[in-house]
Amino acid sequence: MLWGSKTGLEVRLAPSDGRIEDVVLGGRSLPLSVGAFGGLSFRELVKRDRVEAQRLLEVGAEKATTAWSSAVGKDWACVTPYVQRVTGDAVAGGGFLRIGDGEQAGSGLAVDRRLALIPRHVCRVTWQARTPDPSMSYIVCLRLFDQEGMDVTATTSAPAADGGGVWRYSPYSNAHYRVDFHNRQADEWEQLFCEYTVPDGVSSAWLSLRVYTGGALQADIDSLVVDLRPPPGAWSPERRVGGEVRREGTRLLQTAELTDVGLRFDARYETSRDGLLANVRVTPLRTTLDSGRCLQIRYRLPVAIDGWEWAHNPSSCIVLREGVSASAGAPWSEYPLACVQDATGGLTIAVPMDQPAAQTFTADANGLSTQVDLGLATGPSTARTDFTFALYGHEPGWGFRSALEGYYVLFDHLSVNRTTRLGGWTLRLPKPLIADPEDFSLAYYECGVISTASREYCRKHNIKTFLYSEPWGRRQVFPDAKTRADMPPYEERLGQVRTWALGEGGNAKWRQAPRQVTAQAVLNSLFIGADGQGAYKVDLYSHWAQWWQLNPNPSLPPPNIAQVCRDYEIDPALEWADGIYLDSVSGAHMRYEDYSTAHSAAATCPLTFSRRAVAPVVLSAFSNYEFIAWLRQYLERRGKLLMLNLFPPATRFYGHLGDVVGCELRGNQADRHALNQRIYARQRPVSNLLQWKFSVLKRVPAMTHEQMASYIDNQLFYGFWPGISTAGGGTEPGYRYLHRYFNDPSLYERDRGLFTKADAMLRELHDAGWQPVTRAQATSDDIRIERFGPNKAGGVAYLTVCNTGPETREAGIDLEPEWWEAALGTKGRLRMTECYSGTDVQFVHREDRLGCRLSVPAERTLVLRITP
């Protein structure tokens, strides 16, 4: 049975069982791997009867010899002493370790040896800690190594964390790290711990424990212990799913009932003009399950691709060899596609972003796969139990970027631009209200409820207003608490919310809504952990607060937090605002595991499962998707816009949902981070908001004019409008006294010319449209290139050329002659103009080469306009 497309990709399935018999790419039949699974398969995670831990490390301060070194930043064996042995009131024995020096954030100890690890095992780090000020947090860092001893920290995806926490990668310490650890009481020994699931390909790790930020920046540590144990769940053997394939119109349908395991699989294979599409649905044969099911389902193309390149992002690729496996991330991929290619052809596997699931891609020398973690609930649930994927060919020369070009064609409905207003993001209007905010490209105003005068000013200058909303939680404020230790215990905090829900306090408000309604919504929406406890964070802005973490699915039993946001925030604002701004759309809100049966019953997105509890869960990434997708449709019906403060990796699920997107930055944006934004936004407007050095609670010196020019050029390179909130300055500490850029005429008047020049070029770039394949390369590694346009034959194209290095670089820019001449409709002649200076750039044009040489200053961007 032939499953084929007009793009030259064909897959032939055996009618009897769906086995893959042939894969044809661009007219070439690819060899199949002998003995490899092809088509559908699955395995199931079940609880182990017994799990025993292995002690890897035990560090105390009782011996004269040290088992540690001082560490700060990337230096894990630094000379400056950030750890010392102290005698006195220890947990065990007569000594303990004191880390930090009271001044340096991110300083502490590193153990003196690497710890041998086993992939997919759980590494548990436990320590006793005390500090005089519990507002200080600790950071746990792990630097990773493969079997050959190579450092693989930066290239290894950070795993999910326990309790809703987040492991991340930091280039500053070159480590996977977590920072959400605090003492509850001052000057009291307390046991703290974290768990880290060892990623595939990691054989050992180096551990560092440090003081992170806040408080005294010094702490006492004792009994630092590391244990390694197998995961609580064990996988069943992978089982192939075979079922008869039949044709129904233009589709192929496959059904398999596996009565011995109580599952039915229904697969639908379709073709489009631009690729192959498949949908797989899994259904339990019994409507009510005795226990939840934790399934990992795979679809595999068993093609022999030894020697092919694999890429799952635009920045790196690896060569697949026997024994080498590649993953796009776990439990979901970094991007909604991955690809393999050799010299003559490329093959892409992808997922549509409007069908979210815990889905990723893998490859080895014997095939290319997509896999999905799918949970089946014990009780009734409206959650989808299916997943979708696509296959298509791509031009091999440009790898991932070419695959991305094909993705935009196949799923063009995911990148529709709904706004013509272009410009920058601001958190404050200029003070005083200036006559010409257009000079600063002010276009998107993130605001609360604003005055009539401010609304009229925004309408006059076509500044779109977006009401602030943050539905991921509600802060229960404790104004009398001076430190974290002053806050009441968890049960008292939750008890107060329950009391409010019963009506205590009469007409009191919790933000805009009646407190009684909000309190009940918090109880109905609270993420419930495996231990039955509600999820929360503790934070400090103006006051210490308990930040309850909530499921914002609008379909939860009412009243829920989505309903409160709609009735008391969103609907009143839409009487005057142009749209809604959602704050903190980030990875920090994606990893909560929700065990509430009421929440799983109301879910629409697929359930996934917890590897720690071996049970189906609602993952907060998907409950957040339920809210954002609902809100976008709600606003679209009313002619309103949605703006997202969107950070990677949250772009993976929500990158297609914002009409205007951006994120807060501490300074110049890293290339990988910015390119992620550009890819997910495609040609929709992007504006980031500068919060200089994230100086929220402490003041730092104001940015110089040169630093502002560097920031604007950094954003210009990707076609982003440079928004700004703070640029440093001021003297008074605390959130209340943040020194806002547009409240300081001496700063914004100094930089006015930088913004006006950039705005003109950004409008040209936006009109041309960003393109993923540059068709140009630089001869220097420090030089980056992006292409905009042409958006029609014979149109104008642009190259942005950025020097990311610390010094001026002379570099050659080589263009693909045939492509450029065809795209611009030239007859061997092109004109290139540098837009800042207006000067022409001299081309070298021969039969085998088209290009030029440029001198690019450090951390600056040139914009090259290319015309026939």
Plain-language structure description:
- The protein is an alpha+beta fold and 868 residues long.
- It folds into five domains: 2-48 and 244-284 and 295-319 and 348-370 and 389-414, no CATH class; 54-231, Sandwich (Jelly Rolls), CATH 2.60.120; 423-462 and 664-678 and 685-768, no CATH class; 475-662, no CATH class; 769-867, Immunoglobulin-like (Sandwich), CATH 2.60.40.1180.
- The protein is built from twelve helices and 61 strands.
- The strands form twelve sheets. The protein has a nine-stranded antiparallel β-sheet.
- Helix 3 (490-501) packs across helix 4 (515-525) and helix 10 packs parallel to helix 11 (745-768).
- The chain is globular, with a radius of gyration of 28 Å.
Number of strands: 61
Biggest sheet: strands, sense, closure? 9 strands, antiparallel
User: What count of helical segments does DSSP give?
Assistant: 12
Number of domains: 5
The rough form would be described as globular
End-to-end CA span: 49 Å
List the helices and strands and how they pair.
Elements: E1 2-4, E2 9-13, E3 20-25, E4 28-30, E5 39-47, E6 54-59, E7 68-72, E8 75-78, E9 83-87, E10 95-99, E11 107-111, E12 115-116, E13 122-130, E14 137-145, E15 168-170, E16 175-182, E17 190-197, E18 204-213, E19 219-229, E20 233-235, E21 239-240, E22 245-248, E23 251-258, E24 263-271, E25 276-284, E26 293-301, E27 309-313, E28 316-319, E29 325-327, E30 337-341, E31 346-350, E32 358-364, E33 367-376, E34 386-394, H1 399-410, E35 424-426, E36 442-447, H2 452-460, E37 464-469, E38 473-478, H3 490-501, E39 509-510, E40 513-514, H4 515-525, E41 536-540, E42 544-549, H5 561-573, E43 579-585, E44 593-594, H6 597-602, E45 608-610, E46 615-619, H7 620-637, E47 641-646, H8 651-654, E48 660-662, E49 664-665, H9 671-681, E50 687-691, H10 705-716, E51 721-726, H11 745-768, E52 770-771, E53 776-778, E54 783-788, E55 797-803, E56 809-815, H12 817-824, E57 831-834, E58 839-841, E59 844-846, E60 849-856, E61 861-867
Parallel strand pairs: 35-36, 36-37, 37-43, 43-47, 47-48, 49-50, 50-51
Antiparallel strand pairs: 1-2, 2-3, 3-4, 5-20, 5-21, 5-26, 6-19, 7-8, 7-11, 9-10, 10-19, 11-18, 12-18, 13-17, 13-19, 14-16, 14-18, 15-16, 22-23, 23-24, 24-25, 25-34, 26-33, 27-28, 27-30, 29-32, 30-31, 31-34, 32-33, 38-42, 39-40, 41-42, 44-46, 45-46, 52-54, 53-56, 54-55, 55-61, 56-60, 57-58, ...
Helix pairs in contact: 3-4, 10-11
